[in-house]
Amino acid sequence: MFEPKVPEVVESNGFEEDLKVYVAELTKKKFVTNYLTLAMMNGVLDTKETYTLAQKASTSDGLTSLYVHLLQKISEIPVESEVIRKVDILIRNKH
Length: 95
Known about the structure:
This protein is an all-alpha fold and 95 residues long. The protein has 4 helices and no strands. Helix 1 (15-41) packs antiparallel against helix 2 (47-56) and helix 1 crosses helix 3 (60-75).
């Protein structure tokens, strides 16, 4: 799996932008890792499939491609209105 690099020079002019890129890459990696782990634990993917997908995510472009693909798949999952209502209630109760 691709490992983002921490920006080296804090004082450089582009540090803030470098930090944003680093955080975005870490977020993608965590999302993909969690998805693959859950899919494997739930029997959706076997070890070989999981390894193949992890190999595809071994570069920044590969990680981004897999991240976008997984987000698309997740957005296609139908959510029942009762589930949405319960989530809305939970969110309101937290605030």
